[in-house]
Design goal:
The complex is a heterodimer of chains A (267) and B (255). Chain A is 80% helix and 0% strand. Chain A has 267 residues and is mainly alpha-helical. Chain B has two domains: 184 residues, P-loop containing nucleotide triphosphate hydrolases (Rossmann fold, 3-Layer(aba) Sandwich); 63 residues, no CATH class. The longest helix of chain B has 18 residues. Classes of the chains: A mainly alpha (267), B alpha/beta (255). At the A-B interface, helix 6, helix 7 and helix 10 of A face strand 5 of B.
């Protein structure tokens, strides 16, 4: 048995990672079903300037990331396409401008030497015990809310018009969902970083789709894939000194590829 | 000043004007649907039929005009289809549960009304457009609506199923007592199933019984090509545009 297996340095990120994996599964399914993977990507990228400003102001980075993500999510949810520019174009521009702005702000601040790599790809060893506690608690709270609104979000995702005629206030649920997404992205940032955070949502959900017959089944299978990716990824990271975020994503990618292969053979 | 909703009216659209990006879609459209009445809207492509159905369903807000609904009016809306191919893995049975949970008997009964009971355990993404259409109608029926809004309900249906649907509609209406606002592009198919017809081409061109509207000269040309459709419209609206003066000889009410 390797010596790190019961080391808090391994167990702490594992616990936070599993909590994020399990909450990310149903969220990720909704992201995949709604075809808004790029939206999540943009939320993650624009949180970088939020983090940078928070670091300079001496505030917790999570607060900066969540605020930037929330503002962006609300603006995008409420903006009606008035210029005729396609949504994908807006999102792509916003994502990269956000990323660049974050790096510029970080570079301007000579006082704090901050490694942008840890923001971009995650720095799991920096997780303190209280970070883990907060992450797990937030995931539980988020999971509870998601459980309550799940059926309605699925209905809106499947057929917005039918849901609206049946009396669902779609805007309110959109905002709730996007706010939850922004919160999740801010939370998961420490684990896999700004650049990889969407993959934690999208890849396990995508891997689960070919094997799922119900929305809940998809969420559960996606949670299993995500948890497996976190577990195996972290083990690889500790065994071979791989960067932990990329290791988790790479394992998830293998699950995804294997799932697609199995599904094509199935047909 | 505003007239209240007559007791037997389910919904009343009054002077609805709708435009999008400077393009006028509906111009001063008024209509009422009464209890147990089947009203069909016909008109060419781009006439604003779907927009009108969506206005009535409360999905889009017009720029001006009033929509009065009977108190507590329950609307069953049947859209043309899913906006994109459904990505959510879900069976027909579970799909029917989304607005309100149904028990198995209720779900089966609703599907059976559309001869779609065999679909109950199929994934919604694996059934054909016509089958989806039947599931959507079954879903609307299961919600026990007062007003059923059907947007091209026969879209994707084969001719036999199409005839079957229109043959069934008056029976369903008698049985459940709802009113129907139905969109169609083909008057002749829906003729037997409808009590009243409104001919729409952004504005209401004419209305009356299906026989009356069908008998109007050049009605067919409405759907032939836009050029002659325009001429036909002028023909229908002698009060406003007619190049050749008052032609009030047709039976339908022109307003």
């Amino acid at each position: 048995m390797p010596t790190w297996i019961d080391d808090p340095l391994f167990l702490r990120p594992l616990m936070a990672g599993l909590a994020l994996a399990i909450l990310g599964a149903p969220l990720g399914c909704l992201v995949v079903w709604r075809r808004i993977a790029f939206f999540g990507e943009t939320l993650a990228h624009v949180s970088l300037p939020g983090i940078a400003i928070a670091l300079i102001a001496g505030l917790p980075p999570f607060a900066g990331a969540a605020t930037a993500g929330l503002i962006t999510a609300l603006l995008l949810a409420l903006s009606t396409r008035q210029t005729g520019t396609g949504m994908d174009t807006v999102l792509a521009s916003l994502a990269h401008v956000g990323l660049s702005a974050g790096l510029i702000i970080l570079s301007m601040n000579g006082a704090i030497r901050f490694d942008p790599m840890s923001l971009l790809f995650g720095d799991i060893l920096a997780l303190s015990p209280s970070d883990v506690g907060w992450t797990v608690a937030a995931c539980l709270g988020g999971g509870l809310v998601l459980g309550i609104v799940w059926r309605r979000l699925v209905f809106l995702t499947l057929h917005r018009d039918l849901a609206r005629v049946s009396g669902l206030p779609d805007r309110a649920y959109d905002i709730l969902f996007l706010a939850g997404l922004a919160g999740y992205v801010a939370l998961a940032m420490k684990l896999v970083g700004v650049l990889l955070v969407t993959s934690l949502l999208v890849i396990p959900a995508a891997a689960a789709q070919p094997f799922s017959h119900t929305p809940e089944g998809a969420a559960i299978k996606s949670a299993a894939f995500a948890s497996g990716a976190v577990l195996v990824g972290l083990m690889l990271s500790f065994a071979w000194d791989w960067p932990s975020g990329p290791a988790i994503v790479a394992v998830g990618g293998i699950f995804f590829a294997a799932g697609q292969l199995a599904a094509t053979r199935h047909r | 000043m505003e007239q209240p909703l007559p007791p037997d009216t389910l919904i009343s659209l009054r002077a609805i004007c709708l435009s999008r990006e400077e393009q006028s879609i509906l111009e001063n459209v008024s209509l009422d649907v009464s209890r147990q009445e089947i009203l069909t809207i016909v008109g060419p492509n781009g006439a604003g039929k779907t927009s009108l159905a969506r206005v009535a369903a409360g999905l889009i807000r017009p720029q001006s005009g009033k929509i009065l609904r009977a108190p507590g009016l329950k609307i069953g809306y049947v859209p043309q289809d899913f906006p994109t191919d459904p990505t959510v893995p879900i069976s027909v049975r579970r799909f029917l549960d989304l607005p309100h949970r149904l028990n198995d008997t209720e779900a089966l009964t609703a599907l059976d009304l559309m001869s779609a009971a065999y679909l109950i355990n199929k994934p919604i993404s694996r059934i054909s457009g016509g089958e989806r259409q039947r599931v959507l109608i079954a879903m609307a029926l299961a919600s026990k609506p007062d007003l059923l809004i059907l947007d091209e309900p026969s879209k994707g249906l084969d001719p036999i199923s199409e005839n079957d649907l229109y043959a069934r509609l008056p029976d369903l209406r008698d049985r459940f007592g709802f009113g129907v606002l139905m969109i169609s592009h083909d008057l002749h198919v829906v003729m037997a199933a409808t009590d009243r017809v409104i001919c729409l081409n952004r504005h209401v061109c004419c209305q009356g019984t299906p026989q009356d509207v069908g008998a109007i000269a050049n009605f067919q040309t409405l759907f032939a090509d836009p050029e002659s459709a325009h001429l036909a419209l002028y023909h229908h609206r002698p009060h406003q545009h007619a190049p050749h003066g008052g032609d009030d000889s047709n039976h339908a009410n022109v307003d």
